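[step 3/7] inverse_fold.run input=structure_tokens len=105
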């Protein structure tokens, strides 16, 4: 068991020994849930990624309040994030299509 400290903005770092066992990389989207008194992190499904992207777009269309999760990001950082999410969603959709095609044969 690893011990982590909650940092500013309630951020935590996934310890090396845990991270090495997960298919996760910098920039990956994770679903966060609370179950039975524990916090559960798991790779986000395509639907969750699309919902997160929609939330990002919705946020970008209105003035950012000071407590917004995007308020401290530059426009360039927000655009980079949006481009990354679109690329990941497209790549995942292509993989799913390939798997579906392979399963059909």
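[step 3/7] decode complete -> sequence:
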């Amino acid at each position: 068991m690893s011990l982590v400290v909650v940092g500013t903005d309630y951020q935590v770092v996934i310890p090396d020994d845990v991270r090495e066992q997960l298919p996760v990389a910098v920039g990956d989207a994770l679903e966060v849930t609370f179950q039975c008194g524990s916090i559960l992190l798991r790779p986000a499904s395509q639907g969750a990624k699309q919902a997160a992207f929609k939330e990002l777009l919705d946020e970008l269309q209105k003035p950012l309040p000071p407590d917004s999760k995007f308020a401290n990001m530059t426009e360039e950082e927000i655009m980079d994030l949006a481009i990354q999410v679109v690329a990941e969603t497209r790549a995942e959709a292509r993989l799913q299509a390939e798997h579906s095609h392979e399963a059909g044969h």
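[step 4/7] annotate
The CA atoms of residues 53 and 85 lie 7 Å apart.
The two ends are 44 Å apart (CA to CA).
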